């Protein structure tokens, strides 16, 4: 059950409207990492969730994201409003000016329509929580970039609030995952094949123009890891030797 309160979650203030920046803000309204995508992803995961405590978490955050949608939509609208009447402002985005009358629509910053394809809903709680941790990280970095491109103090203040909440959510999702009592690599029920799961394939080899080279690190040199050197290249060498043998045999050498 939803209820709307005629008050924004965070007070929105714009000192100088900037239609071109408003267009950028649309990324967090109707874009892949935007507030509608977050609200829908968590809410629908919540509807599917059979863990009562974590269902509550998903519904709490999903609903907060709807409040964020209202905040970012209001902020964006303030920046786009001049598009309706002012020719120069309208040129910042003819689609918004001519079709939308300077209002927000569910498009990203390039005018592409919002799509449910943005959503990651797997029906498996530990998988969904990982998707959500990544989604919050992406939302955070988009807000950070918007803040860096912004010189309006009121706008920056609102974006700082929205960016901060994404870290709060990220922490909650991480804690909810950590406390599920699963091994960090346990996804679903089936066990991976032991001899296959421990192999690390050094599939990118040689030295690059910019000095890139084969790196060793904890991800490929722990005790439980078997480092396998360039398996495709070895395979190719074996095949080449076989071909040469066949050629020699056919030539009677
Ligand atoms: Mn949000
Ligand atoms: Mn969030």
What does this 3D model show about the protein?
The chain is mostly helical and 253 residues long. The chain is built from ten helices and two strands; from the N terminus they run H-H-H-H-H-H-H-H-H-E-E-H. The chain has two domains: 19-178, Up-down Bundle (Ferritin); 194-206 and 215-250, no CATH class. A two-stranded parallel ribbon has the order 1-2. The longest helix has 29 residues, at 52-80. One manganese (II) ion binds next to helix 7 and helix 8. One manganese (II) ion binds at residues 38, 65, 136, 139, 165-166, 169.
What's the topology here?
Elements lengths: L18 H7 L1 H4 L4 H14 L3 H29 L6 H4 L3 H6 L25 H24 L4 H26 L15 H4 L1 E4 L23 E4 L1 H20 L3
Parallel strand pairs: 1-2
One manganese (II) ion (MN) binds next to helix 3, helix 4 and helix 8.
| Fraction of residues in helix | 40-55%
Quaternary structure of the protein? single chain
Number of strands: 2
- Into which percentage range does the β-strand content fall? under 5%
CATH class of the largest domain: Mainly Alpha
Bound molecules: manganese (II) ion
- Mind describing the biggest β-sheet? 2 strands, parallel
C-alpha termini separation: 84 Å
Rg over CA atoms, rounded to whole Å, is 26 Å
CATH architecture of the largest domain: Up-down Bundle
User: How many H/I helical runs?
Assistant: 10
Q: Supply the helix-strand structural class.
A: mainly alpha
Mean pLDDT across all amino acids = 95
Question: SSE order, as H and E?
Answer: HHHHHHHHHEEH
Total separate domains: 2
| Strand line-up in the sheet with most strands | 1-2
The named CATH superfamily of the largest domain: Ferritin, core subunit, four-helix bundle
Low-confidence stretches: none
Remind me, CATH topology of the largest domain?
Ferritin
General shape? extended
